[in-house]
Amino acid sequence: MRNLILVGPMGAGKSTIGRLLARELHLPFRDSDKEIEDRCGADIPWIFDVEGEAGFREREQAVIADLCQEDGLVLATGGGAVMRAENREALRRGGRVIYLHASVEQQLERTARDRHRPLLQTADPARVLRELLALRDPLYREIADVIIETDQRPPRLVVQEILSRLQQLPPR
Length: 172
What we know:
Number of helices: 7
Strand content: 5-15%
């Protein structure tokens, strides 16, 4: 078995759903953002402050390349991981890609009190989320084997839909 890889915008539920999916399948769960923090010994806002987004994206690319070489895990990626062609290729090769889609309204609701998201530390997070989704949505769709809507849906229901949809895919 290869990996199950969750992509999508911040607030789509990648980490929550990824943990539940991994538990259901008895697989290890990894989160690329957490992996970056563990390797760096610093949290993501600090990395953004010190190295900027470009420095963070370099670290992210290295972590994604490493994690996609593993076999039999559930991987949740950061929302911007798809911005680099090298990441998209690694994700595609690394396993089945599941795009968890969430509306901007849902993202705002889920991230409203989260101070751990550097790109949202602005006067107008809704505008930022709309711009990010417009830019990233086509890239998520480009690499997705399955697209799942997560708005107003309990995580366990989303996991069940993922499992059902994966069974319908032809082997590769």
